[in-house]
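just leaving the lab so this will be short. what follows is a protein written twice so to speak, once as letters and once as structure tokens for the fold. can you read through it and tell me how you think this chain folds. anything you notice is useful, everything is just below:
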Amino acid sequence: MWRASLANVHHTRRLGAVGAGLAWRRAAVAAPIAGWAVGPAKPDSVLRRCYHEDIVYGYRVPKVFDYPDYSSKQLSNRQQQAALVCLVSAYRSIGHRATDLDPLKIQKRQAIPELDPARYGLADASQMFDVDGILAIKSESGSTKMSVAEIHRALTDLYCGHVAFEFEHIPDTAERRWFADHVESTSTDTKLAAAKKRRFYELLARSEAFDNFMQKKFGQVKRYGLEGAESAIVALDELFSLCNHSGIAEAVVGMPHRGRLNILIDLLKYSPRALFHKLQGNAEFPRDLPASGDVISHIASSPKLNYGCTSDLHVTMLHNPSHLEAVNPVVAGYGRAKQMYLYDKNTDPGCALGDRLIGIQIHGDAAFTGQGVIMETLGLSNLPHFSLGGTVHIIINNQIGYTTPATNARSTLYTSDVAKMVNAPVIHVNGDYPEEVARAMRVAFEYRKMFRKDVIIDLITFRRWGHNELDEPSFTQPHMYKIIRARESVPKQYERQMQEEGIVTKDDASETRAAFVKHLDDELAASKDFVPQADHLKGKWAGLIMSTEAVTTIDTGVPVATLRKVGEKSVSVDQAFHVHSRLTKHHIQPRLKRLSEGTSVDWATAEALAFGSLLKEGFNIRLCGQDVGRGTFSQRHAMFVCQDTENVYIPLNSIGGKQGKLEVANSNLSELAVLGFEYGVSIQSPTVLPIWEAQFGDFNNTAQVIIDTYISSGETKWLRQSGLVMLLPHGYDGAGPEHSSSRIERFLQMCNTPHDLTDAGQVQNPNMHVAVPTTPAQIFHLLRRQMKRNYRKPLVVAGPKTLLRLSAATSSLEEMAPGTSFQPVLSDSLADDPGLVKRVVFVAGKLYYDLAKAYADRKDEISSKIAIVRVEEICPFPRSQLTRELERFSGATEFIWCQEETMNAGAYSFVQPRLQSILPSGARLGYIGREPLAAPVTGISCVYKAEQAQIIESALSGI
């Protein structure tokens, strides 16, 4: 019986042993769960019983791995044969540096002195040793007694051949022992059945035939073929086969452009005629759908594969943008969300994280080293709420990036070295040897299966052409391409090997290629009559529609009694659970008082009511970001931490009934990968409300690639809807250039609504919604509207900071009752007589409260001549609501857009032409705000205060 503190799980070592008797325990991470206190690690049986709950909350479930202890005989043998232990350790640690990995032979094999037996006093090649407990390799007769020559030869063949293993950097002793023992004990198990070899040959031959066909028929197309790296298709096929035979039901794949078409056509059942239809200049979607489409290197597919098993393997290759590696966190998020769905439907109590789904990421070598999203995504791999239970990474290493040689592309020995940040093992393999590639994949798969952690395959290949088929690579790499053009292709090499082994005849080889080319010719002919179909609203998405206009007003109210019940539950904890005294006094008790009175509901309470009411209706919610559990401004407290035990509890997961689940995912300090992850979650299921909250609004800057290529354009390019919500704290409060602006202008620039609406009836159907709510009731309705509509759109919320606790910024429960909804425009309530209004000031965000306070202070002076209108949703532009508002002020002659942002930022450039189009004839829209500035705002406090005062004064004076 064992117990291990979550914060104190260590290895034990013995003299001469690499972790003797170690029980490998990946401890449960203190993450939120309702009804189960996270405490000391529990035995495997207990973990299995509570696994179903854990995965719903996004836990990385502990897995107990007991590695066999060394026997006393083995320990004694290791102590007596210390020299041999050192030699074996050297091969395991640095043998990879002496391997034959480069198909082009440009990188020469190194002579490593540490691999010489004589260095350890083992100069006598005939000297016999018992390797029991030292090496898992055995002699040809199966004995553990081997000579120095036999040991040296076996070590060289295993660790310095065409496959190289890096695993000694792994800090966990048991993992290192397992890896070494597994590699060494399976070293002789390399014979493949003839049928398997035939399969590999056919894949390679068809891949080469496809590239040749494309070059002949579409010679001017940049197809980024697989030529030179054809072994990648063998690696992927072997992985799919292993997954299928091990019971994995789902594989989620992300990859860049190189080789994508080969893999789609030959492995993932993508229709060649659909591809040829698009290559002839046609759309990949029905013409009646408002979709712009994308280039061929971003095409996706989602087939079911079967390798002779009782059930299928469903493979989903996701769409990717041209921004290298941006798809990686999307794959992780999509896979995580799908795992939650699978486990929710799975009744097997013994199921573990990663049993049903695997993540597969394919990379380019230069991108793997150079793109920061790689490091950010790897950083998520072992975290609670983000782990997939292990991802298999395949680096298609062409040894060049565009025209950049490896010496200029990285500062590390290997392109895979960045993966060592998460202690992932790396398997390097020479792409000239397809069978060794398959063997490397088998080792990688077994490691991932055992430890549920990421593993890297560095597949070292070459690129037959330049960066694309129209490029001339010898401009910059003459020596490399002289070698490439003189050598035989990988498929031809393997074909010759198969003929020598009698598995394929010369006639077989010709027939295989000819049959595939004929198939492609037939598909090309049929492509002229091909009619594309859409598959975007099927499965879990069935019942939703592709919107034709923006639904901005929908009844999202909830009965007051239900709101009170949900609100009370949001701060209810067991008496034995000791909440911090300040939370009891300043958070729990005030919330209960507000709910009882039904007035002065603050922002955090309204948000909790939105969450709780959606959960009660069966929706799931994932709230993600840095410190979202308590909130950046200590306002939310969706999770409580017991002050005695540090157990975590989420009250909203105990509302009762068949409620949904709230996952509070406190993320690491990443925006690019985390936002990509949440986008992946959002496109997997329409029943999950995924919310990403930035610590401050401008933190979205570092995730701009995800915003540009996925969130703003994913539906337009690929017909993939997303209901992702981005909560971006925004507002000028003297904090300086950073952390003030969420850069609303950038999101508005990406919105596709009409610029000048001269026709009042013109329909708006934006790619995303951008809102600046100023009351708790507004955020309540916004969040509920995301799930209550029959379509999904991304929502960008320029949320508050100072309004979170501003007494003027509160709402009543009646404003959230049935019959209420989000209001894109909040009418002026300050002017006593609309007919007397001469100036209408349009404003968005917290500036309204500054103006309203100043308005109240000088109301006698203003005498109802000024009206202040809040624009709560900027996109879609609320044209009809603002038109009605202007009709109330029929005597107005001045119309102003007032903002605290600089003139070249904020919403001004977006609203100016739209507001101008609805103003009375002859009227012009004025501007009050800060002057254009390169920074969002000044960092000098006295200047800031003077500017803010001037904005308010200009808006309310001169009447």
